[in-house]
Amino acid sequence: MEKDYQVNPFTRFHVDAALVTAGDKNKFNSMTIGWGALGTLWAKDVVIIFVRDSRYTFEFLQREEFFTVSFFKDKKIHAIMGNESGRDVDKVKKTNLHSVFTDFGITYEEAEETFFCKKLFTTNMGLEDLPEEARRFYDFDDKAPHYIFIGRIVDHQVK
């Protein structure tokens, strides 16, 4: 696995946005995420993502051992993948992406960079744990805001 990551972790998610994908060859889903982090935890290189349990991709993330986080230059991909549900629309077909299936997850030929992750830890971000500023800013309406998924990077591809 290549360990020379060429990313700016402070803009990679917030400015560039990413797709998280989970599932298998028979059924998978991707969605745009804008919250994430790259770093080190328990002496492992990790990706940390945040996903609401109402999202269709959440079901796949909960069930599967692996997930991928991929980055694209085309903002139209993020608009479709972030605003439409895989429950209702074939988002891969609509974005003209070409799926690539590996032992460590699913990515797309068009991705400029992909992190392949093995799920290490998942937890719910409880409202009681959030500072008041975050609760006001994101207006969570007494729902659990997001789940945190931490994945160990097991492979990395850059075009």
Q: In terms of topology, how is this protein built?
A:
Layout: E1 18-23, E2 28-33, E3 36-41, E4 44-51, H1 56-63, E5 66-71, H2 75-83, H3 91-95, E6 99-102, E7 105-108, E8 113-124, H4 132-138, E9 147-158
Description:
The protein is an alpha+beta fold. It has a seven-stranded antiparallel beta sheet with strand order 2-1-5-8-9-4-3. The chain has a two-stranded antiparallel sheet with strand order 6-7. The protein starts with 17 loop residues before the first strand and ends with a strand. The model has no long low-confidence stretch (mean pLDDT 89).
User: Mind telling me the C-alpha Rg?
Assistant: 15 Å
Cα-to-Cα separation, first versus last residue:
14 Å
Q: What oligomerization state is this entry in?
A: single chain
Tell me the series of helices and strands, N- to C-terminal: EEEEHEHHEEEHE
Structural class based on helices, strands and sheet pairing = alpha+beta
Uncertain runs are: none
- What is the average of the pLDDT values? 89
Helix percentage = 10-25%
Count helical runs: 4
Largest sheet: 7 strands, antiparallel
Strand segment tally: 9
Shape verdict = globular
Strand order of the largest sheet: 2-1-5-8-9-4-3
